[in-house]
Specification:
The chain is of the alpha+beta class. The protein is 50% helix and 10% strand. It is built from 16 helices and seven strands. The chain has helices at 15-35, 42-54, 76-90, 96-102, 110-115, 121-134, 143-148, 164-182, 185-206, 215-222, 232-239, 243-253, 259-269, 285-298, 339-342, 346-351, and strands at residues 150-153, 156-160, 275-279, 311-317, 328-330, 336-338, 355-362. The strands form two sheets. The chain has a four-stranded mixed β-sheet. A hairpin with a 5-residue loop joins strand 5 and strand 6 (336-338). The radius of gyration is 23 Å and the shape is globular. The two termini are 31 Å apart.
């Protein structure tokens, strides 16, 4: 949940907790499907547990907040796959089937849907877990009910129609969790500041300025890592990184000589973040320009450095993507229909439309 603990003090749970929870739910799902007559071999069962346990292993410090900051333009799933391949070599091919399922190359397509779809074990765990630890009750879902209603039809995952209201609640919970937790304005601005801290630290380091930090973090500050250059040596360095490397560096960098880096780090340490305004329409360009001008008069920064403190962006929330693999509903006559066509709730169709909001950030002193 990145820096969501700044908003919800209980949200200190880790991705390791989530990985274990996902595997627990996968065990329940496999048990349910086997009870309903779906054939799953011992090797397939083990592969499903390995795949879901490792599905997020490629996440770096602070998860999505720094996904494209530590390394350049590499999605965490690609890094997860690199870890799985390295482990497969270490364990002499015992992860081969798990990797095949994870990549969507296994002929039994429902197995990938259990790991990655619009109603997978990943989402069922993180919604319930994040709701519990943050205290956002609207995100609570009945994962047991959803799993008990799972079935496989024509090699695809379906859910029995008597659970359709649980599915609708699941989608609504996901929508609300995004607005109230994952895209909460304080979480958003804190995570952007975090990425800008690393961007500034990289720029300073690569210009020859020494910054105190752990050896693994220094490695990534000194190098620009792309998809092509991400080899086993880099993977080993990446595995050494966690949230403590970042927070330890931020605590040291708050006393840096560079004003930009020092100021940004102080914002995180002292919880004195930038002001964020969220609007339905795009921010006014003239206002942004005026704020940047006022910033240069207030702080010792040049024109290029104003983007660290005054910037705009947008937030997109889509609870149900009908362009993706749909949620299939198994009716009593054994026919299958997609959720949005049979749901009585008009909000299911509404949730399939992307909601976009815009934001603008700037130091509070500029409007004091």
């Amino acid at each position: 949940m990145g820096l969501s603990y700044l908003v919800y003090p209980g949200a200190h749970h880790t991705r390791f907790h989530h990985a274990l929870g996902c595997m627990h739910l996968m065990q329940k799902a496999v048990e349910t499907l086997k009870f309903k007559g779906v054939t799953i071999s011992d090797d397939e069962e083990t592969a499903l547990y390995i795949a879901i346990l490792l599905h997020d292993i490629g996440h770096g410090p602070f998860s999505h907040a720094m996904e494209h900051s530590i390394v350049e333009n590499i999605h965490h799933e690609a890094i997860s796959l690199r870890f799985m391949n390295a482990l497969n070599t270490q364990f002499e091919g015992k992860l081969s089937l798990a990797i095949k399922i994870f990549k969507g190359e296994y002929h039994r397509k429902f197995m990938l849907e259990l790991i990655s779809s619009q109603l997978d074990m990943d989402r069922m765990d993180y919604l319930k877990r994040d709701s519990f630890y943050s205290g956002v009750a609207e995100g609570n879902i009945n994962s047991d009910r959803l799993i008990q209603m799972l079935h496989v039809v024509d090699d695809t995952l379906a859910i029995e129609d008597k659970a359709i209201y649980s599915v609708e609640k699941f989608l609504m919970a996901r929508r609300l969790m995004y607005w109230q937790a994952y895209l909460h304005k304080t979480s958003v601005v804190a995570e952007i500041i975090l990425t800008k801290i690393l961007k500034r630290a990289k720029a300073l380091t690569q210009s020859g300025i020494f910054l105190e930090c752990s050896a693994p973090l220094r490695y990534f500050l000194n190098h620009r890592i792309s998809d092509d250059s991400f080899d086993l040596t880099i993977l080993e360095q990446f595995a050494l990184l966690d949230d403590y490397d970042i927070m330890g560096a931020i605590k040291a960098w708050q006393f840096a000589d560079d004003f930009v880096l020092s100021r940004l780090c102080n914002m995180i340490i002292n919880r004195d973040l930038l002001k964020i305004e969220i609007t339905e329409g795009k921010p006014d360009k003239a206002q942004l320009k005026q704020l940047k001008s006022r910033l240069r008069e207030t702080f010792p920064v040049n024109e290029n450095e104003t983007d660290y403190f005054v910037f705009k962006g947008k937030l997109i929330n889509i609870a149900y993507n009908k362009e993706s693999v749909p949620i299939r509903i198994l009716k009593k006559d054994r026919s299958v229909e997609v959720l949005e066509e049979i749901s009585e709730q008009s909000h299911v169709k509404a949730m399939s439309k992307a909601v976009t909001k815009y934001f603008m950030c700037y130091p509070k002193v500029l409007i004091g």
